[in-house]
User: What shape does this take?
Amino acid sequence: MKFPLSLFYVCATSLSVSLVHAADIPPQPNIVFITADDMNYDSAGCSGCPIQDLTPNIDRLASEGMRFEYAYSTVAVCQPVREIMHTGLYPHHNGAMGFLPLKPEVRTLNQQLHDSGYLISMLGKKPHYQPEEKFCVDYSPPMLIGKKPAPIIQVPRSPDKLYALTREFLKMAADQGKPFFHHVNCTDPHRPFIGANGPDDLARGTAPSRFIQPEEIKNVPGFLEDLPDVRKELAQYYTSVRRLDDCVGQVIKAIDDAGQRDNTIVMFYGGDHGMALPFAKSNDYENSSRGTLILRWPGVIPPGTVDVNDMVSTIDFTPTLLDAARLPMIPNMDGRSFLPALKGEKMTGWDRVFTFYNQSSGQNWLLMRCIRTKDRAYIWNAWSDGQMEYRAENMQGLTWKAMVAAGTSNPEIQQRVDFYLHRVPEEFYDLTNDRTERTNLINDPGRQKEIDAMRAGLLALLQRTDDPLADAFAHRDNPERLKAAKARLIAEYPPREKKKDKAAQAEE
Assistant: This one.
């Protein structure tokens, strides 16, 4: 059978056009997502670190991409915020009200990527991503090296090991011809800090490229007290930050050495929340929630740029990465894509973030809600009743003990200690001249109009998202409403057995 010559030309032309269009479509980008654990936003040099040249690798990454001046963690504690990063959902929507698994119906970023052909790794913190099957991990080698009585090394605290495993995973992806999502969860600067148990203590890792001494601490962060033991612990903390920077540098070097730089989005978030010291981690303060967010994407993100206009949050990570990978959005996410900002486009409606706290790792319900703009913050401490005392992991170590001891002879520090233990139901801060939130203006007569506006904004969000505390917040003067809300939460999320997996405990 002979085809008409005209039909041949039509088919040939159509094929030619299709090939041209296919050639015009860039390949799906690889994604490398690096997190730091318990790192304050201003512990990186590019974000204002008081220790000079502490983070050369993170700073270099910022010079090659875009840093967000105002990036925040939706919940300032490990597992809940990580599960938020991967779902784009508030904790009362995805089930991560504490150290809990996602709800069965919730879909993750990993599932969306995996179903689209991405190869997925998970280095570090794997027990904090639950249930395991929702994270579709193709590559997750053991994260512990060595056996007792010799020191046990955590891979996420070993820059050289992270380099080797990154190269191994990239080869695996290349051999299979797949785009990759390389997820590196660095453990530093989570406790234990380097040197906490003596000068030879490397805190379950390898030696950092630099050790910070207490005399190098020229400026104690304003939310802490300037005490000798605070400086000592900060030196340990900043030394751990240096090893984190070593790890980040080696992961990026592995990407670049493998020839994957040009088509790879590198996203660094430090940290999943603030440092594990009082008035930071496991609260709703600025130093609890604010993080250093940097993205590098050659050819898309202009190098050396800083976004100072938009307030973004961990709840926006999943929609943004899906948007960048040109993949369908997961239905009904709470977060939004800030891809336009990465391309240098102006966005509107990004002038506030909402942060939450529900349950600590010790299963204490310390319910808090916050609405935050660039220069104002309103916090509702639903747990604060004048009797209950706050207890969390950030009170371990030298700093809290030093504050308590100093308070016996210093009334101002004692007042700070008492406030931290009991708080008050409402806090309001003008961050214009009080970035470290020292002066609570909730009872200032001249501030009541703007406080009411912040309350209204928080209530609208709680009601719109069906937050379990929405009714209690709307009727803050009725203790019975709050008592009923807490009872419903405990019934929905009953106490669970403590984690008994020793290997997981050693890793985390």
User: Anything to note?
Assistant: The CA atoms of residues 84 and 90 lie 7 Å apart. The longest strand covers residues 305-313.
